[in-house]
Predict the structure.
Amino acid sequence: MKTNIFKLASLLLMLMLSTSHLRAYDFMVDGIAYNVNSDGESVSVTYTTLSMDNYSGLTNADIPSTVSHDGTDYAVTAIGNNAFVNCRDLISATIPNSIITIGDCAFGWSTSLTSVTIGNSVKSIGSNAFYDCRSLISVTIPGSTVEIGGEIFGRCSGLESMVVESENPKYDSRDNCNAIIETATNTLIAGCKNTSIPNTVTAIGSYAFYCCSDLTNITIPNSVISIGGGAFSGTQWYLNQPNGLVYAGLVVYAYKGVMPDGTSITLKDDTKGVAEGCFHGHWGLISITIPSSVLVIGDGAFTNCKGLESVVVEIGNNTYDSRDNCNAIIETATNTLIAGCKNTSIPNSITSIGERAFYNCSGLEKVSIPKSVIKIGEQAFYYCTGLTRIDSYPNPSDVTLGAVVFDGVPTSTCELHVLSQYFDAYSNADQWKDFINIIDDLDGPVSAGDVNGDGRVNVSDVTTLVNMILGVVEKDEQVADINGDGRVNVSDVTALINIILGVI
């Protein structure tokens, strides 16, 4: 399951500075600290210290619209990152209409905060802005707010009411649902213990109900086909579920408990979605069958499944497939392999290998990357420690690599086999060049239309083909017979042009 890196980093920062008493502000007025913004005319509210006694003793933060210091008047336009973080004595806060932004973790871990009034000019509220404000009872998001960060009300177990003002163009609380919904995507991004999910909602965002401990019952409508990681973590609803597969409506949300070794799972025929990180880290899983009904598979649904041997998408699924018995999940429309296993064979029709597709797949020993691949996502082969051989057919200059694609792969011992014409390119390309043993011994499959053998299909191949037909250069029927009719003539030129134009 995707880790909330920002939250962990913030926690670490507070721990590191738990004894710090560094002055972090330009001036203080009436017990509130401020930093002057870059325009020189406005200020942001900031913290007094990042130690455990930030604003110690402050119970009511009635933030003014303007403030004066040394004869200069400033407009108060922002509440900065961590401004009231860990302000344990704070009970109420009033945010004036002059405030435009509320920063990340602005009120995070202010566990006594029961009431907050957000002014009607606030445009953005940062991630974790009210994280662990467990005493907070109700909140109203003004019509002006058009950007809300992740997990703004995570661990706010006391929340009973969440309302978005009706004139808000980006978010809503339709049907008095006691939740925040991103209107355009019908995604519920934050809920509380009294949330009733409307049947127009199609997705529940990551950590939407995170640690909402008093959430005991929730009805997930059949309209929901996507659920983000950690959406129900720490809720009583989830804790009450028996061990094994946990469904939230028609979405398989998680496998609860320790999965026994040698587990094979076939999802229910009416399953519409697989939640983000659903099976992450379950080493006992050896086989998964995805029914034709599944419309959404969340990020990292099968990452770190070291024992996975068989991955099958049933025939008839219009969104995903396992073509050519590849033992992988492929997003059909984009030809992207999104999840593989130790027995995956990447089909020649694949153009992209998705982020974390083979994440921590330590059982993967050999893999062949076909010439068709033009993109490999971040951490695609992360910690595939068992890899001993990679056969890579594309020209590396044609392949876009995400960050740390091969991090954790034993590049000192894993052999990278390439086509001879690309040896120098691999030897000098970022990430590829980390392999100590690059061997140019592959007999490359010929891409349809690559008549001149340069690894690309373009107008230069048309020129070469015409010259073959005219006898100017020696004819190679294997590459020149584009349409496969056993003859090399002008119809092959037409077929080649159609390939270049994307017609076929």
Helices lie at 5-16, 236-239, 423-428, 459-470, 477-480, 490-501. Residues 459-501 form one domain. The chain has a mean pLDDT of 92.
